[in-house]
Design a protein that fits this description.
This protein has about 450 residues and is of the alpha+beta class. The protein has 2 domains: about 290 residues, Beta-lactamase, CATH 3.40.710; about 120 residues, Serine Threonine Protein Phosphatase 5, Tetratricopeptide repeat (Alpha Horseshoe), CATH 1.25.40.20. About 45% of the residues lie in helices and about 5% in strands. It is built from 21 helices and 8 strands. The strands form 2 sheets. It has a 5-stranded antiparallel β-sheet. The longest helix is centred in the middle third of the chain and has 16 residues. It starts with a helix and ends with a helix. Belongs to the glutaminase family. This is glutaminase. Homotetramer.
């Protein structure tokens, strides 16, 4: 049984160790429990399908951390709902990924408009103000696969979104689409207004794409992870596309509440008239909340309340001071996240010749060349104690620098010679002849291969 378990985890051992050591960078959020008590707001009457669904669906929430160590769901998070405006930042990211930011912004601006999201208006350059208003979203949808027909372009976006969520659910709500067609007169007007610019109307179909809270949180996590899907590990979006998308979500993502949301919450987010809120905590996690009752600006009442409570308890606000402000909790910081303790543990492992501990530190991305108060490295300590296996591990696997000097001017080789460890002296002399101060890319590949072989030897 132990051998079978080892074979199963071997390919992901590095991430497993990181995940267990972090104990989840995003713990279970008790602040969620306050949100269902908010009974204000009304579900959208513009889309009758959403309105009738409101009576049977309550508040749902999911988050997906980047290392997948502790995904968390509250409520029946497998219930599908339409994305509505939450699809706007995603279609923009697709367009920038495929066409580049410069080309996309020839047709759409990047400034908050100051008008309602569905207002029929263009800026002084005769372009929609930004991709998050309806006019901008219509333009962006026309840039994706412009030479293909509507069905092919829609399928292309669907496949792209599926690649963002791994194996999670992405579907299409025909009922929502038909409801949109019956009540979308203003969008039709914007579409006809833009038609002279050769803009083609696709946004209704995209807004009717369905996700669950679970799959939506993976979409947000892909944005939080710089465009790499945390489920598959594949790069889906370019770094440029993600950066620009998050910037626009931060400044324009919450309708007329965008400025207030940026001020109080300070995180990139996008809301939809379905009651969805797509929230991104960069480099940490993605979240999707769904609660249909909306405020007068079209945002989910409970979703906004949850986001405010989240940043009041955790230091996720973009401008929270992580070093000097201790009233908030920082779940990204481990309770034992002390660099001094890390040095002590590494030095003690080298002193005792504990190969298992050294291997664990290496796999956990610990700096194997860090120094103590005497400027001694782990290689100094292992060489002075005569631990051949530890010295071989640090040199052959970790490729540490053998030329580092402590405060007395001694190298690891000097320590081995001083204490009469001839076998260690031979190892270090041979390694010094082979060592190159600035490792080339070939050396890095060899290092990676060595770590892989180390995993297989466990």
């Amino acid at each position: 049984p132990n051998e079978s378990f080892s074979r199963c985890i071997m390919s992901s051992l590095r991430w497993l160790i990181i995940s267990l050591s972090w104990l989840s960078s995003a713990p279970t959020f008790g602040v969620y429990l306050c949100a269902p008590s908010m009974d204000r707001g009304e579900a959208s009457v513009r889309i009758s399908y959403i309105y009738f669904s409101h009576s049977v669906v309550s508040t749902l929430c999911s988050y997906c951390p980047l290392f997948l160590q502790c995904r968390h769901n509250v409520g029946n998070t497998k219930v599908p709902f339409c994305m509505q405006s939450c699809v706007k930042p995603l279609e923009y990211a697709i367009a920038v990924h495929e066409l580049g930011s410069e080309h996309v912004h020839r047709f759409v601006g990047k400034e908050p408009s100051g008008f309602k999201f569905n207002k029929l208006s263009l800026n002084e350059e005769d372009k929609p103000h930004n991709p998050m208003v309806n006019a901008g979203a219509i333009v962006i949808s026309s840039l994706i696969k412009p030479n293909a027909n509507k069905a092919e372009r829609f399928d292309h976006v669907m496949e792209f979104l599926k690649s963002m969520v791994g194996a999670e659910y992405v579907g299409f709500s025909n009922a929502t689409f038909q409801s949109e067609r019956e009540t979308g007169d203003r969008n039709y007007a914007i579409g006809y207004y833009l038609k002279e610019k050769k803009v083609y109307y696709l946004i209704q179909s995209l807004c009717s794409i369905e996700v669950t809270c679970e799959s939506g949180s993976v979409m947000a996590a892909t944005l939080a992870n710089g465009g790499i899907c945390p489920i598959t590990g594949d790069r889906v979006l370019s770094a440029e596309a993600v950066r620009n998308t998050l910037s626009l979500m931060h400044s324009c993502g919450m309708y007329d509440f965008s400025g207030q949301f940026a001020f109080h919450v300070g995180l990139p987010a996008k809301s939809g008239v379905s009651g969805a809120v797509l929230l991104v905590v960069p480099n940490v996690m993605g979240m999707m909340c769904w609660s249909p009752p909306l405020d007068r600006l079209g945002n989910s009442v409970r979703g906004i309340h949850f986001c405010n409570d989240l940043v009041s308890y955790f230091s996720f606000h973009n401008y929270d001071n992580l070093r000097h402000f201790n009233k908030k909790h920082d779940p990204r910081r481990r309770s034992d996240d002390d660099p001094n303790k890390s040095v002590v543990n590494l030095m003690f492992a080298a002193y005792s010749g504990d190969i298992s501990a050294l291997r664990r530190f290496a796999l956990s991305a610990v700096d194997m060349e860090q120094r103590d108060y005497d400027s001694r490295t782990a290689l100094h300590v292992a060489a002075a104690e005569g631990h051949q296996e530890a010295v071989m591990f640090l040199t052959e696997i970790c490729k540490v620098n053998p030329h580092g000097k402590d405060r007395w001017g001694n190298t690891p080789l000097d320590d081995a010679m001083q204490f009469g460890h001839d076998a260690v002296v031979s190892i270090l002399q041979k390694y010094q002849n082979e060592y190159v101060e600035k490792r080339s890319s070939t050396s890095k590949e060899a290092h990676s291969a060595a770590l892989d072989s180390m995993k297989s030897s466990l």
